[in-house]
Amino acid sequence: HPNIRSDVRKRVFEIAKAHGYHPRLSTKQRNVVIILPGDEIYPIRNCLEMVMMALTVVLPKRGFRIEVLPQDNLDRLDSIQFCGAIAIGAEPNDFTKWTHYFSAPLVMVDRDVPPDSPNVYSVRSDEAQGMDLAIGHLHQRGCEKIGCIIHGTPGTGNVDLRRVSIIKSLKIRELPAHDSLIHVSNDDQYLEIIGKLLKQDIDALFCPGGNAGIVAAYALSLFDKQVPEDISLITSEHKLFSCFATPPQTTITQNHIALAEIAAQVIDSHLSESQLPQCSVLPYNLIIRDSVI
């Protein structure tokens, strides 16, 4: 209420938290908090932007108002009235106590649910299927030695899952899958890694995550390699680059609108006291353009 002093409001929230009290959610309360990574160099910038774009389309159509909050400022949630929250690019361990502090649902995009968190949900893309989709396409087009660079840092996000899935997909097709062909990196190391991969006579490059399409295209041009004549290339879809590259890049892409729709459905279901599955998994799509032989 606007007439309640901020110090009184703060004290009330502290007492409520100490006693485990959660106010009952109201169908009239339509504020959704979108929690974004606070770190500017977090390696999911491209995915974050596309999910955000989808949420800004979907949520207002359902009558929700949006408030954006950096993850390093979560203390503000104590003073915000909201009916649900959506975290993009967060780690599950950061929200293990969500159920203890909040009755509103939290939807984690592209991450798993922390253990013992009944009002935390996951909506994510099928990483194993996505990696296999790309490797399978390259193999089908005759590529026999595929180098892979996964954007990110080991132990964070979906990096480890992608690596395991890529290795499995390569081995199923009896393609080389040793460590020298599969790397994890941030943008600043792509040039060096691609140089090392080219020395191993790769005929294809798969770079999921980040802005790898831009960086890989630049690196290959420096090594005087033509796409797809010398090297076939598959990256993750970048709305502002992939279809405008030379040549336009074949990509894997998440269904960001569908991810946003499910996130909104989860919050709506809590308000109406119905129930949706705690985890929803959507397939990747392959956009075929001109970067694969």
Task: Walk me through what this model shows.
This protein is α/β, with parallel strands linked by helices and 293 residues long. The protein has two domains: 6-125 and 256-283, Response regulator (Rossmann fold, 3-Layer(aba) Sandwich), CATH 3.40.50.2300; 127-253, Response regulator (Rossmann fold), CATH 3.40.50. It contains eight helices and twelve strands. The protein has helices at 6-18, 45-61, 98-101, 127-140, 159-172, 190-199, 212-222, 256-271; strands at 31-36, 65-70, 84-88, 106-109, 120-125, 146-151, 182-185, 204-207, 232-236, 250-253, 279-282, 285-287. Strands 2-1-3-4-5-11 form a six-stranded parallel beta sheet, with helices on one face. A six-stranded mixed beta sheet has the order 7-6-8-9-10-12, with helices on both faces. Helix 3 (98-101) links the parallel strand 3 and strand 4 (106-109). Helix 4 runs parallel beside helix 5 and helix 6 packs across helix 7 (212-222).
Mean pLDDT: 89
Top CATH class of the largest domain: Alpha Beta
CATH 2nd-level architecture of the largest domain: 3-Layer(aba) Sandwich
Shape: elongated
Q: What is the count of DSSP helices, taking H or I runs of 4+ residues?
A: 8
Oligomer: single chain
Task: Please give the alpha-carbon distance between the first and last residues.
Answer: 63 Å
| Tally of individual domains | 2
Class from secondary-structure proportions: alpha/beta
Poorly predicted sequence stretches spanning 5 or more consecutive residues: 40-44
Q: Order the strands across the largest sheet as they lie in space.
A: 2-1-3-4-5-11
Number of strands: 12
CATH superfamily of the largest domain: Response regulator
Radius of gyration: 22 Å
Helical content stands at: 25-40%
Largest sheet, described in full?
6 strands, parallel
Beta-strand residue fraction: 15-25%
Order of helices and strands: HEHEEHEEHEHEHEHEEHEE
| Annotated CATH topology of the largest domain | Rossmann fold
